[in-house]
């Protein structure tokens, strides 16, 4: 695997904290990171504003009022700066996708805000919010979303005490096929299931290990449940992440890598192997990425959706839940502890009507 040289415009809103970057030229940050992938072209897409229909509006605003009873009027209305993923007209998303909401300012009364956030699915599953910063809250389901459906997110911001002048916000998502891949780093294969059916077995080569920094072997692929975060048909990868920038250095490299699907903030990808095809299916030789055959990598790139599940097994390096969209690393009970409400509300509001999801 080879690290990313950051040359593209800022594309993808992320939340990450990693001890060592296996591929990235620079450590990830809480700000939108450049070069995240071809599917990340409009993550700043403006949320659709508008009042919710009566069918989706709670019978009263009591939960928000009770949670925010002590909340003083805001100097400026609380607004949403970003919603990830993008809407149904822009992309289809995988069954592991989180809903990431970033506010334009720090949220002081998180319980009041959380109480006015709604998630409605045509095929409901239990879910809960977790605050990962003063400005960012993430919705994750207990089990993966059901595929081939619409999910509606609503933020009834006008119901927050002191925030009545704010506009309510909504976004509708389109869930695509259930693409769930398992990378076995010991058997050197990636098996891809689509809607429960095994559709492809791809020979791979994962991280070889052997470069330890701060007690972490950064050449190992991280074991855990990753999500696809974006993709690019060609990604520029260099040795700069190791501090090697002199072309005369034996460790220096700069490569154009085809069919790159990013699965973490520490720079892990599923991508076409840059030669060395003899190792695919036989041994681990990468710097941490999952290298695949040209045909396998191109096929995987073609079906990849943001939010697709890529589970890596067999290495001693564990994936940190704060590394990109790796929220599935937490158990359900651990996840719910991040809610600001006394008990995380497990059930969605009623299934939207045809007019609402349309």
Key structural traits:
L,D-transpeptidase catalytic domain-like; signal; 8% helix; nine-stranded mixed beta sheet; cell shape; LD-transpeptidase; disordered C terminus; mainly beta; disordered N terminus; 358 residues; globular; Big_10; five-stranded mixed beta sheet
Write the layout of secondary structure elements.
Elements: E1 10-12, E2 33-34, E3 48-49, H1 62-67, E4 80-84, E5 92-93, E6 99-103, H2 110-114, E7 117-121, E8 127-131, E9 136-141, E10 149-155, E11 169-175, E12 179-184, E13 189-194, E14 197-205, E15 212-213, E16 216-217, E17 224-227, E18 230-238, E19 254-262, E20 269-272, E21 290-292, H3 294-303, E22 309-313, H4 332-336, H5 354-357
Biased composition (Low complexity): 25-34, 47-68
Signal peptide: 1-24
Region (Disordered): 25-68
